[in-house]
Structures are given as C-alpha cells and as structure tokens.
Amino acid sequence: MPFSAPEGKWLTLNLLSRLDRHFQFQQVLDVGAGAGGYSQLLRDRLSPKIWTALEIWEPYLERFKLAELYNRLIVADVRNWAPDQDYDLVLMGDVLEHMQKAEAQECVIKLLQHTQLLLISIPIIEMPQDEVDGNPYEKHVKEDWSHDEVLASFSNISLAFIGESLGVYLLSSNQGVHEVVQFLIADLPSEFFRI
Questions:
Q1: Domain spans of the chain?
Q2: CATH number of 9-192
C-alpha cells in the first residue's frame, strides 16, 4: 500500500526527533516514499534541509503530489539504484517485504554504506498482499518476516521496537554512531526495545 500502518509511528517520531538534536540531519532519503507519509510525519519536526524521495512507481509522484513533500524525486528500483551521495538518515518504511530476502539484505548493506542511520519498518507477522491499484510493486514477495528473522538477517541493529504487527529497527554500520544512539536512548523505557 502507498500508505504505511500507524503502528510504530509515534516511536519513530520521538526517536528521530531525539536523535536529530544530536546528529542534526541535513539529508534524508525516503526509500519507497509512496504517499509521502514519512515526510508528512517528520519534515516539520526534524532539521533536514533536503528530503529525497526514491519511488519505484512513477504514478505515485503525481497522485500524491510528492514534489510538494520532497526537494528531490528519484524514480528507481532501490534494488538496482546506485546512490549518488551520502545521507544522514535513510528511511525504509514497508519496503523490504516487497522483495526476496537476499535482495532485502543486499539493499540494506548498500544503503548502510551511504548513511550513518537506517530506519526500517517492516511487518513481522505473516502479511500477504497483492498488487494495489494496478501497481505490481505493492505485492508482498516475502510476506512472512518475523522479529527473529530480521535480527538474524541484518547486522548492525542498534535498537528495535516490536509491535503487534510491525517492527521498527534502527541500524548503523558505524560503531561510534551506534554508541551515541545507545547513549541517547538510554532513558527510554526498556520494554519498547529489545535486541
């Protein structure tokens, strides 16, 4: 769906607002921007000067007026896309279930080379979905991710939130960034995070 579930959004907003005060995000990449939900949720609350949308389904650009929500629009499949710059934060909300597991792992590895922080939101229960409104990319290719499989499939996870149907994971391949994140979230209730 071009819209993501509300579960985990309050955590994402609070977490990224807290991290932004330290990291002062300047460049954000929203992979699979869809209807632009992350821009609408975060744009007025974070410091980034440049928001970039990467969207595979070109009709969404006009349908959801993404040019009004992002500074830069890229129509591409993240699986074959080569980043042309580094980002302070990359958001992947409801993207990885639309590809094979090996492709998801390759995308995460690639993006971690171009960002200090990568936030993933992904269904962690079986969640089948077919194409939506003629968009074949909306089909869930791997529809049975679980929290344990996410932890086993992706290294560099700094924290995780496990909801009833979605997991939110923050990753960094930079040990220094990982340590800063752990310090900045130390006072958050521990029941929300487990690795």
A1: 9-192
A2: 3.40.50.150
